Amino acid sequence: MDSQEKSYIEIDPARCKGCACCVVACPKDCIQIGSEINQMGYQFARFAVRQCIGCGLCFYTCPEFGAITVYTLPRKGE
Fold first, then answer.
1. For 2-58, how does the pLDDT look when each residue is reduced to its tens digit (9 = 90+)?
2. Where are the beta strands (DSSP E) in 1-78?
3. Is 78 part of any domain?
4. Most exposed residue of 19, 37, 49, 65, measured as fewest CB within 10 angstroms of its CB?
5. Residue 38 domain boundaries
């Protein structure tokens, strides 16, 4: 796993309403709105590019509590 794979996010498709706040907020363009539709009828966001830096901007801008979880893996020696 290289340094760009130390952080990642998970997006719960069932909670996402496709507002794209996270897409706009991501400084590394890791998130896209997909073409699939969830049970509420929304095209939901998905983690698309493994360049996540774990900044949490997507989490903080998302209006749907629990839709995005940010994971930052510890580096060797931490």
1. 444 589 999 999 999 999 999 999 999 999 999 999 999 999 999 998 899 999 999
2. 7-11, 31-37, 43-47, 68-72
3. no
4. 65
5. 3-72
